[in-house]
Task: inverse folding
């Protein structure tokens, strides 16, 4: 359960988020809005990558201002460009990275790596160089790397923007199978099918929040204007 | 030569990374100072047999050396022109053998294993302020990001050509550096999000995100 209490954020003079007050408890939450409306800044509040200038963000009662490390174990984050979050040359090495940060070593580490690779259909690519993977495979690897750490929430910031249709589907299928809470920024409205809640951002404020159909309609209306 | 692990089951793959690095360092020193042709021949045959033992296909092996052939050819030619063709041949052959040996090590050793060995070797320097895990991560990332950066360079060049800009190093450099800096920001953010902590598992009093983390990647 994530609670955002009267959070505002500014970069220099411009206010990027204004007075956001929310609690996020649903299993599937979509975030939509125009470019520059503050979506990325908002989701970065959720695991303490951005600390709000005022107000606070609580994850299971822990404050991002103080308990960043514990919170990042609970809230995994998948970025838009997988090339920027894969840090080891080989698939299995990169998968092991986050797990080693959790303190796993040796056989236990090996076992978790194998599990995660198998779960996402990456086992045949295990010894492959990450740069030889397709865009969709890279994003699956990024997702697998985050989920291997067993967070209770996964935040994704436009995970399919750089992908073609087939790879979008692979990511969508992988996401659909997760037990975790999923909070996703996206411009791919069909990814929001089956979601519980959609939040619409406009110029740093929430202008709609509720059933996906309503949120999507509001977003489309904004885009027409 | 970097980051092209060739997966196979072989005794060479199974050798500890530290041992392979040691063989490489000692072997390179010996080979580069060797002037006796028969000993060089033995070294060459040994390295070639090690390739066979490691089950590296000939094509892959040759591909490691090929990019260096131009430079080696030039070196040989230069020596031949000044009448030192024997010396030129010697230098060229030494380099080919050492290059092959180095390639063999990178082809049969995962970067993470190599880094774990380097991390252990640097361990005793910890009291001097060296952070072995950080050094190892930096080296791994340098290897990982070579192809990423070269993709970025290709993208910039393509965009420039589409706008009729001719190939020029200066025109390439500034957009590429900008991209690299932006990328560094988001990589720093990703490391942080994935739980990386250079101090290991020791609890620390401050928990500031890295500098780059305050800036979401723009889109
Ligand atoms: N580090 C930064 N410095 C200054 N302005 C920023 C920074 N990061 C984001 N912004 C600005 O904040 C606004 C919201 O950005 P962002 O959260 O990335 O929006 P979105 O993800 O919805 O496109 C934009 O106007 C953007 O230019
Ligand atoms: Mg964004």
Result:
């Amino acid at each position: 359960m994530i609670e955002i209490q009267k959070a505002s954020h500014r970069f220099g003079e411009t206010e990027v988020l204004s007075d956001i007050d929310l609690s996020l408890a649903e299993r599937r939450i979509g975030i939509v809005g125009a470019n520059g409306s503050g979506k990325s800044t908002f989701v970065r509040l959720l695991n303490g990558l951005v600390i709000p200038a005022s107000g606070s963000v609580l994850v299971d009662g822990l404050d991002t201002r103080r308990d960043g490390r514990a919170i990042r174990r609970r809230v995994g984050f998948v970025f838009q460009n997988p090339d920027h979050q894969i840090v080891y040359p080989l698939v299995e090495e990169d998968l092991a990275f986050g797990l080693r940060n959790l303190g796993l070593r040796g056989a236990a580490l090996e076992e978790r790596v194998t599990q995660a690779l198998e779960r996402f259909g990456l086992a045949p690519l295990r010894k492959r160089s990450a740069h030889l993977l397709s865009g969709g495979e890279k994003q699956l690897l990024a997702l697998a790397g985050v989920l291997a750490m067993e967070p209770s929430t996964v935040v994704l910031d436009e995970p399919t923007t750089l992908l073609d249709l087939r790879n979008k589907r692979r990511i969508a299928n992988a996401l659909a199978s997760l037990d975790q809470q999923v909070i996703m920024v996206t411009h791919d409205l069909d990814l929001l099918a089956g979601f519980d809640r959609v939040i619409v951002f406009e110029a740093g404020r929430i202008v709609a929040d509720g059933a996906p159909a309503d949120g999507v309609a509001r977003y489309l209306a904004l885009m027409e204007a | 030569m970097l980051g092209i692990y060739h997966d196979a089951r072989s005794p060479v793959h199974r050798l500890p990374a530290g041992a392979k690095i040691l063989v490489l360092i000692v072997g390179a020193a010996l080979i580069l100072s060797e002037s006796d042709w028969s000993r060089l021949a033995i070294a060459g045959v040994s390295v070639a047999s090690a390739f066979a033992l490691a089950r590296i296909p000939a094509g892959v092996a040759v591909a490691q050396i090929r990019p260096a052939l131009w430079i080696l050819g030039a070196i040989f030619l230069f020596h031949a022109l000044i009448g030192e063709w024997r010396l030129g041949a010697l230098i060229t052959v030494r380099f080919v053998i050492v290059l092959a040996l180095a390639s063999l090590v990178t082809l049969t050793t995962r970067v993470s294993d190599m880094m774990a060995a380097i991390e252990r070797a640097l361990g005793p320097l910890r009291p001097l302020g060296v952070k072995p895990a950080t050094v190892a991560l930096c080296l791994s990332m340098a290897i990982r990001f070579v192809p990423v950066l070269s993709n970025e360079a290709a993208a910039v060049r393509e965009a420039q050509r589409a706008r009729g800009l001719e190939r020029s190093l200066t025109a390439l450099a500034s957009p590429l550096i900008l991209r690299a800096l932006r990328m560094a920001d988001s990589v720093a953010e990703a490391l942080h999000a994935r739980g990386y902590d250079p101090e290991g598992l020791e609890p620390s009093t401050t928990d500031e995100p890295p500098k780059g983390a305050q800036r979401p990647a723009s889109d």
Q: What stands out?
A: Residues A 11, 16, 33, 35-41; B 214-216, 218-219 surround adenosine-5'-diphosphate (ligand 1) (CB under 6 Å). The CA atoms of residues 34 and 40 of chain B lie 7 Å apart. The mean pLDDT of chain B is 85.
